[in-house]
Amino acid sequence: MTVITPKLTLERRLLRECELIISLDEVGRGALAGPVAVGAAMMDATGARRRVPEGLRDSKLVTERRRPEVAERAAAWVQASAVGWATAQEVDDIGIMSALGLAASRAVQSIADQGATVEDALILLDGNHDYVSRIHPVPLRVRPVIKADRDCASVSAASVIAKVARDGYMAELHETHSAYQWNRNKGYASPEHRDAIRSHGLSPFHRASWAIADVPTLF
Fold first, then answer.
1. CA–CA separation, 151 vs 157, rounded Å?
2. 126 a known binding residue?
3. Which of 11, 98, 155, 182 sits CB 3.0–4.6 Å from 23 for a disulfide?
């Protein structure tokens, strides 16, 4: 299988038209337990001239063992980074797409809290649907791009930063909820996870509105 190395072609072109790009990517959308997380990586024209860090890829294409070091390099490479969260309870209360928007809005706000003027930024969002604009309290310019996590280096950075943060959180939850093996499956619908739900029921960290035992395995 050919692995595509992300580049800065789109970012450099867009930064001729705007001062900042804030790139977003989500992790945890399909999990049965735990939060959804949205990573944010900010880049300006100066940053876009820097070389892409070694090993940076969409988080799904980086081995679990290597992800922390790649995420560390990615965070040092961009001008600012953040992770926004929406809890399992919020997923249940408002639905997954609104929860993604809430997590994304929180990530963008965290970037703003670090000194960025987000009203002047272009939000580069992986996917084909803008789930951010209607949630964030101030107007944003959002550009969804299909496969941006694969092709755009700044979005790959957001992806791996969010993945490492969420995986670490699920490993912490495993310490008090070890029956579900979240240190291994990270809350997704593995056979061991579904068996544990049958045996032990749902924890407070499960998405109760859809965490049934017999849903299809997602990986």
1. 11
2. yes
3. 155
**Domain CATH number, residue 169:** 3.30.420.10
pLDDT tens by residue, 15-34: 999 999 999 999 999 999 99
What's the total number of domains in the chain? 1
Token pair 């395995």 is at which residue?
217
Asked whether residue 191 is assigned to any structural domain, the reply reads yes
What single-letter amino acid sits at 191? Answer: P
Q: Residue 59: its pLDDT value, please? A: 79
Range of the domain at 188: 9-200
Q: How confident is the model at residue 210 (pLDDT cuts 50, 70, 90)?
A: confident
Distance, first Cα to last Cα, the chain: 18
Ligand-binding annotation for 25, yes or no, is: yes
Nearest to 207 by CA among 182, 190, 188: 188
Q: Any bridge partners for residue 27, and if so which? A: 37
